[in-house]
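Lab intake sheet, docking and co-folding queue.

SAMPLE TYPE: protein with bound small molecule
LIGAND NAME: guanosine-5'-triphosphate
LIGAND FORMAT: SMILES
REQUESTED OUTPUT: full 3D complex as structure tokens
PRIORITY: normal
SUBMITTED BY: R.K., bench team

The fields below were copied directly from the construct record.
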Amino acid sequence: MLEKSFLNLDDTIASISTAWGEAGIAIVRLSGPQALDIAEKAFRGIKPLKDTPPRYMRNGFLLDERGAPIDEVLGVWFRSPKSYTGEDVVEIHCHGGLLVASKCLELLIAQGARLAEPGEFTQRAFLNGRIDLTQAEAVLGVIRAKSDEALLSAARTLRGELSAKVNSIYDSLLNISATLEANLDFPEEDIPYLSKDDLFQSLNAIALNLQDVIYRCKVGKALRDGIKVAIVGRPNVGKSSIFNALLEETRAIVTPIPGTTRDIIEGSIVHKGIPIIFMDTAGLRATDDLVETIGVSMAQKALREADLRLWIIDGSEQLTKEEIDMAMELKNHSHIVAINKADIPQVISLEDVRQMLPESEIMVLSSYDKEAIRELKERIVKKLFKDSAINEGFNATARQIETLKSVLSCVENSISSLVSGEPQDLVASNLLEARYHIDRLLGRNFDEDLIHLIFSQFCVGK
Ligand SMILES: Nc1nc2c(c(=O)[nH]1)N(C=O)[C@@H](CNc1ccc(C(=O)N[C@@H](CCC(=O)O)C(=O)O)cc1)CN2
Ligand SMILES: Nc1nc2c(ncn2[C@@H]2O[C@H](COP(=O)(O)OP(=O)(O)OP(=O)(O)O)[C@@H](O)[C@H]2O)c(=O)[nH]1
Ligand SMILES: [Mg+2]
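RESULT FIELD (auto-filled):
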């Protein structure tokens, strides 16, 4: 059964908000209507907290259930609504020992606080309207950021830049809808009239704006979760050698025997703030070997599911028929071609490959050439992101990107209804649906299960 108590804001919740382990300080936090009363029973300073101004650090002692002081601590309280959660909040900053922090929490629970669920403080900030859902999710982005760029993108979203963009799109949609409805309801009256051309211009501008936001969300997602690059090609062309060179360590076995790699081997690096997860795969060929056959089908799966494919061919040997088929398949997916083994006499040139794949990005290299490998990393990132974009990301999850795409498709549908001369109420109903998706994105309408799902990914105490 799903625990639904989390939507109840009457409880006062408590948890240790710092990491579990020995440290200089640990913070135990309380939020809710009883926060001050409960804390008062376990804290003794020169003055009680209630007689201490909010946000003022008061020195005192933590008292156990018998009134014996067990630690010297600092206590501070925040008066609702000026706090992280929007409720009364008390923080006790005790020494960062495992025992003392747990004791402090236990004492507060004994005095009537309830143990907070993961993410419940942030959830309350959301439920109390202090932050919207994109900001709440950005908190997790800040906590999990693994690079400066990822951190900046999460912080930008936490500050509300994505919310502001989306809210302004919402307002534009609402304005258009209002005028449309007025036109529909009172066609004869003297109300601001929206010509078909004006309408088309406005909707187009909104669609462009949305595309930009979606792109920036994708960048932010890549900054946080990384991009998957599958290294594929026929056996013995040097996939594992290039994989090792990209990672700058010997992770995969390299031998002159075709069919060396069977399992998928993953390894990641961070380039320009973007985590790149490389997947070395089994050489693609038809084989009777059972293990290799399984490896080949795993390689094909990786090829389909990756964000980018790195197709390796051996420049010192003729292309096989399978490779020519492969080239045709790659046309449908984003990819980079690397002609390997440039250090030995070549039988395939860049032009030969270009004839087959005129649109593709092609590089001639040797897995031993460090400079070329650096260039390859650069091209991988460039292939997926405009240079400027990396500094403009928004923290977003796959679900948020899907929601934004739904908004976009509603706007696009409204444009095509308009262009094909369908009745204006069709345009209006598409715009209404677009606004519905924005409401979901910002958490202005939500179901409890979704909220539970989102916040349960947070750490305890956040
Ligand atoms: N000790 C401590 N550090 C922390 C937090 C915390 O709760 N406690 N935070 C969270 O976990 C983050 C900071 N986030 C916060 C966001 C808003 C408010 C706040 O009180 N806002 C009020 C008052 C603003 C003012 O007057 O300065 C407001 O916006 O109304 C507090 C913390 C990170 N560091
Ligand atoms: N001359 C030369 N040989 C290379 C280069 N890169 C790899 N090789 C050699 O090519 C052979 C195959 O290399 P691997 O990296 O194991 O090839 P692979 O594509 O992973 O092969 P499978 O795992 O069997 O699919 C090895 O003998 C490597 O030393 C290169 O740039 N130049
Ligand atoms: Mg290999």
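REVIEWER NOTE: Residues 239-240, 252, 260-261, 280 surround magnesium ion (ligand 3) (CB under 6 Å).
SIGN-OFF: pending second check by T.M.
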